[in-house]
Write a structure and sequence with these properties.
2 helices; five-stranded mixed beta sheet; alpha+beta; globular; Malonate_deCO2ase_dsu; about 100 residues; about 35% strand; phosphoprotein
């Protein structure tokens, strides 16, 4: 198991909490809690060692295609593909935008 913490600039405010995925499903769970500020703090626990570069690339990509909300993102990854990871992350951001 590897633990990774990333901090990226946030470009929008939001409120509330959101959850996507289920740890027991075998791929991943993503929890988001909105906070005031200008950053998104991402805490990742993954079963895939040496995956920091993959996560950094994913969040760099997300920054270029959408605005990221300020807050805390907690990810429990159990070998999900980058496509599933992106879907789960976008799901929590969409859900919290309706809060």
């Amino acid at each position: 198991m590897e633990k990774i913490t990333l901090t990226v600039p946030a470009s929008r405010a939001s409120s509330g909490k959101a959850l996507a995925g289920v740890v027991g499903s075998g791929d991943m769970e993503v929890l988001f809690t909105a906070e005031s500020g200008q950053t998104l703090t991402i805490e990742i626990t993954t079963s895939v060692d040496n995956s920091r570069g993959r996560w950094e690339a994913l969040f760099n990509r997300l920054q270029t295609v959408s605005s990221l909300p300020a807050g805390r993102l907690t990810i429990h990854d159990f070998g999900a593909t980058p496509g599933v990871a992106r879907i789960r992350i976008e799901q929590v951001f969409e859900e919290v935008s309706y809060a």
